[in-house]
Amino acid sequence: MSKPLPPTTDATKGVGASIASFRELELSAVMLRALAKNGYEQPSPIQAQVIPPALDGLDIIGQARTGTGKTAAFSIPILELLDPLEECKTPQALILVPTRELAEQVFQEMERLASGCPTAIAVLAGGKHLRRQMRQLQAGTQIVVGTPGRVYDHLQRRTFDPRRIWCVVLDEADRMLDIGFRPAIEKILRTCPRERQTLLLSATLAPDIQKLAQRYLVDPVHINCSQNQVSVATIEQRYLTVRQDRKFDTLIRLLERETPRQAIVFCRTKRGTDRLFKAVKEQIESLNGLQDARLACIHGDMNQRDRDRVFSDLRSGSVRILVATDVVGRGIDVSTVSHIINYDIPLDCDDYVHRVGRTGRMGRDGIAFTFVTADEGPQLTAIERNINRLLERDLLTMEVEEQATPESEIEAIEDAGSEELSKKKRSLFKHKRRSNDRLSRTGARGR
Question: pTM for the whole thing?
Fold first, then answer.
């Protein structure tokens, strides 16, 4: 019989939440200098709760969304406990992530944190030359960051030696299982030493995640940085009711009104991403405050070199507006993104949270807008239920409709579709009433 998961420690309350300095975590002078050099001032709640038990070698289940500082939470203990490269040239720590973009981001953050001490880190992910990765592993590597598929490939080729691994991190475990990496993950875990330390980080604890934890973690500490505090508290969220044929005009007006510092516009499809990028690019020079803004788009059909270039330009700030699909966009970790625009409403509630989580990083302010057509009311209600919050309606679309459509045309449309719209409205308000009742019972704030 599987052991039950341990009680949860809320990382936003108690001892961890009150730690005011990294010095209180008893880190080395080298690490403290690297943290100060890279702008780390105070541990985030998840860092304050994860670092002490991780330094003690305990297994950990950490519930945390992106943007909470979880990469540093597991990177700092690993870097503090590494044996010098001259003493051990085979990998000591393995970090598994769902995408090559996230692997690159984890690598870059670990490089910054290791700036005071030479550290050999290898990235094993698709889109990179296999032979180059082999040479890097042969030369000596302390830490491997990679996707399960490519790491397992190296295992089969015997180019990755897991016998000295003492720490395994499963970052964004829920996403890895969603993608279908479970078989590869389990095979990798079974080849690593049983005496290792395992850290499992996931936004949710679905049954399949719990089974994985029960099978491969030993007496883990369970730490929770709850989703509401991560993606709702610091992010203003609004929706705009739009007609399908007015979505682009609404987007242009919204960009001109907001003049975002940096924005990501999400579309559902690769083709839609390309079309929208080209259309916005044609209009951008006429928008007040955005005449010199540089645009880019990113999706799964682009080659790795082009995707890496877009990510680099976004991080440097040279790209101000990025049009992206879910699969690629969810891997973006850039603290300067101020605006998220869901041009296409996400079909999955978890996708909504991941999209919105691209802004408001590390406690910064952020705002998210979601376009909702007449057919998409139930999807909006499902999102509101999932995040336990009612989104505020933005009235910009009323201005767009008034300017773009003659009154006689509006009346004709309303007359022609009044019965159908009435049914949709009744259905939507039923959802709203149920949602309001539930929110009232849970004490959530209304509009």
Answer: 0.62
